Amino acid sequence: MYLKKINLTNFRNYENQEILLNKGINIFYGDNAQGKTNIIEAIFLCSMGKSFRSKKDKELIKFNELSTTVKIEYEKQDRSGNIMAKIGEKKEFFINGVKQAKVSTLIGKINMVIFSPDDIEIIKEGPQKRRKFIDMMISSLKPNYIHLLNDYNRVLEQRNTYLKQIEKEKKSKSLLEILDEQLADLSYKIFEYRNQYIEKFAEIIQEMHDIITKENKNKENIKIKYISNAEDKNGFLNNLKKSQEIDLKRGYTSTGIHRDDFIIYINKKIVSIYGSQGQQRTTTLTLKLCELKIVTNEIGETPILLLDDFMSELDEKRRKSFLQNLKDSQVIITCTDNIDIQKENRKNFYVENGTVQESVK
Question: Which of these, 37, 125, 128, 142, is most buried using a 10 Å CB contact count?
Fold first, then answer.
């Protein structure tokens, strides 16, 4: 699939901008703080229904304006379409002109994989970043998964509230048993999804890592492992029962799928702890290549690849190794200086102060 056109109206620092994209590689270059990442953000908004940078929708509206509109036209193997996002007093989405009742209906319309400098936090930071990464990927492929996560978080919040009420108001523990049953059931369903996709990563992670590190003198053996405290409903339920007294004292649920993690090893050492800065960056890119291949296999066509501030995280060899292995993807790259890529199917755009101009450079 590929994007044909982007229209921005009062979005971030853009007043009124139309961008006609190439099917292949699209390079947006210019100084920092000129609006390059805003283009990536607009695509993400129409794909996932939210920003990847800000939790506040109002921040997407140009200063001194009341609303913003983003419209994206796309082409798939079997159909074309458009998605429009409107943010003002409320946030609304339209698919081919039809207003959507739920944001989740956007999922799967524009399939994309995004890589930004902050993604190194997936490796370096705690389990929450890694859960977010795998959950977002699964959600983009399986809309039902979003509902499972929402249901789990709702029941988890109910259980945490009720734990406090039992301690403070001496309420019966009978409702706790019902909530535990619900939580265990949802935990197992989420676990099945995560475990299935981590296994897909495990099958190809060495192959993808070899692509990025082929210039290295010493081969790196890489593995990924999913960490969960249970693997079936009874296991999750038993853990909740065992931790009940501790949870009552603490006032929150200390065990469950919301504490799961995955660990990546290079040469049998945990990358997040023992990996060098270079290894952590390379591993992040390996994860993204795996994601790209998995999504391609799932949907039967190549998703759009968004590379934000791509130059800053990789040396020249790794950049070339990465880009040379992109065959059918439409790629949208932001960088401070234009990239020398030996590919004919490309467009260059110079970005300055919220204005995009096609460049022959």
Answer: 37
Residues in the chain: 361
- Scan for tokens 């096609």, then name that residue: 358
What is the predicted pLDDT for the residue at 167? 81
Question: What span, in angstroms and rounded, lies between the C-alpha atoms of 176 and 196?
Answer: 30
Question: For position 341, what pLDDT does the model report?
Answer: 66
Give the C-alpha separation, 126 to 246, whole Å.
23
User: What is this structure's pTM?
Assistant: 0.88
- How confident is the chain (361 residues) per 10-residue block, as mean pLDDT? 96 96 93 94 94 91 96 92 96 96 89 89 94 94 92 97 89 90 97 97 95 82 96 96 94 95 97 92 90 93 89 66 74 84 79 91 62
Q: What is the dihedral of CA 56, 62, 65, 68, to 10 degrees?
A: -70
